[in-house]
Amino acid sequence: MISSAKVFIDGEAGTTGLQIRERLESRRDVELVSINPAKRKDADERKRLLNSVDAVILCLPDDAAREAVSLIENDAVKVIDASTAYRVAPDWAYGFAEMAKDQRAKIAASKRISNPGCYPTGFIALVRPLAEAGIVPRDWAISVNAVSGYSGGGRAMIAEFENEADPSFTRVPYRIYSMAQKHKHVPEMQRYAGLARAPIFAPSVGRYYKGMIVEVPLPLAAMGKGAKLEDVHAVLAQAYKGERFVTVASPEEARALKTLDPESLNGTNQLKLFVFGHDEEARLVALLDNLGKGASGAAVQNLNIALGLDEGAGLS
Ligand SMILES: NC(=O)C1=CN([C@@H]2O[C@H](COP(=O)(O)OP(=O)(O)OC[C@H]3O[C@@H](n4cnc5c(N)ncnc54)[C@H](OP(=O)(O)O)[C@@H]3O)[C@@H](O)[C@H]2O)C=CC1
Ligand SMILES: CC(=O)N[C@@H](CCC(=O)OP(=O)(O)O)C(=O)O
């Protein structure tokens, strides 16, 4: 346990970096080390800071994250990378503490932690326990549909939706994207859900800032396992029993809902799972803030675990 850990956020002026900074600023057990804004892309100054702290959080595009990792020579520095660069790298710990019983220990023991993608956080939470239980066959042709607020695309997409002077400015209320089935999140979805086949991923973005719904339709009757809706719920409830940041709505709560608002958990590090439908057809839903449990919340949770601090410090 380190009493006051020094932390540098590389990319602290970006969407994710700013939110992490806000979550850490008032902490007494963490001392934030900032870069002079004029030098924030200066490799020498970044290298100095990257090697002078207990932990760094990388909130950069993939290539810049790889460069940052290559600049670290101090073996004591712990790295939490928010980008896609190392999410399926074998020598990195996947930073989804609730994903498996031994995952916290893996995160705590590793100096290289990759923060999960926002969509994969919802997908893996829903599917991994069901694949382990045999309800979802590992070779099932699974699909996942999702909607995100536009902050999911970082500063560039925020400008697209908010800045009328931006050449890409748009007023669309909703749009689908990534139709070529090559989204950067698919490899980590497949790997950590434990599937033999890549899921068909259909993401979309809406004209609102943040919040997301990730949905997995499951034709239970066609899956040949004889699982009923209550079995699906029971597996998920057991998998996340006692977890503070991942909860499963009760069957009564799910039945009472007529609609679901993607913004309901904004500002929190919460991920809430729902099992809708009936015994023949289930609609599994994960609700989260793409900038909360989908990014900055998860990064702070991982930082806390990596430094041996209270896992929930700075999080709600
Ligand atoms: N937004 C989200 O919901 C999520 C984002 N992430 C991931 O987090 C990372 C950051 O994303 P996000 O915050 O949204 O992106 P942003 O575009 O909002 O921020 C990226 C920041 O990195 C800076 N930057 C770019 N290149 C360099 C460099 N070579 N050296 C130093 N700084 C650099 C940018 O500066 P400038 O703008 O001046 O180029 C910007 O401040 C990405 O890898 C993304 O995939 C993860 C989960 C969710
Ligand atoms: C709405 C939108 O565009 N979302 C982004 C995902 C968010 C993101 O930046 O990906 P990470 O979670 O891996 O960092 C996308 O689909 O590329």
UniProtKB/TrEMBL annotation:
The listed locations are: Cytoplasm
Q: Which SUPFAM superfamilies match?
A: Glyceraldehyde-3-phosphate dehydrogenase-like, C-terminal domain, NAD(P)-binding Rossmann-fold domains
Q: What is the native source organism of this protein?
A: Terricaulis silvestris
Q: Which residues form the Semialdehyde dehydrogenase NAD-binding domain?
A: 6-107
Establish whether keyword Cytoplasm is in the entry. Answer: yes
Catalytic residues as annotated in Swiss-Prot or TrEMBL:
118
Identify the SMART domains for this entry: Semialdhyde_dh
Tell me the Gene Ontology biological-process terms attached to this UniProt entry.
Answer: L-arginine biosynthetic process
Supply the Pfam families for this chain.
Semialdhyde_dh (PF01118), Semialdhyde_dhC_1 (PF22698)
Q: What chemistry does it catalyse, as a reaction equation?
A: N-acetyl-L-glutamate 5-semialdehyde + phosphate + NADP(+) = N-acetyl-L-glutamyl 5-phosphate + NADPH + H(+)
Family membership noted in the UniProt record: Belongs to the NAGSA dehydrogenase family. Type 2 subfamily.
Which NCBIfam families does this chain map to?
argC_other
Tell me the InterPro entries matching this sequence: AGPR (IPR050085), AGPR_AS (IPR023013), AGPR_dimerisation_dom (IPR058924), AGPR_type-2 (IPR010136), NAD(P)-bd_dom_sf (IPR036291), Semialdehyde_DH_NAD-bd (IPR000534)
Its biological purpose is as follows: Catalyzes the NADPH-dependent reduction of N-acetyl-5-glutamyl phosphate to yield N-acetyl-L-glutamate 5-semialdehyde.
Cite a GO CC annotation.
cytoplasm
Q: What is this protein called?
A: N-acetyl-gamma-glutamyl-phosphate reductase
Q: Does the keyword Metal-binding apply?
A: no
Which pathway features in its UniProt record? Amino-acid biosynthesis; L-arginine biosynthesis; N(2)-acetyl-L-ornithine from L-glutamate: step 3/4
Q: Which UniProt keywords apply?
A: Amino-acid biosynthesis, Arginine biosynthesis, Cytoplasm, NADP, Oxidoreductase
Q: Where does it primarily localize?
A: cytoplasm
Q: Which terms in the Gene Ontology molecular function aspect does this entry carry?
A: N-acetyl-gamma-glutamyl-phosphate reductase activity; NAD binding
EC number per UniProt: 1.2.1.38
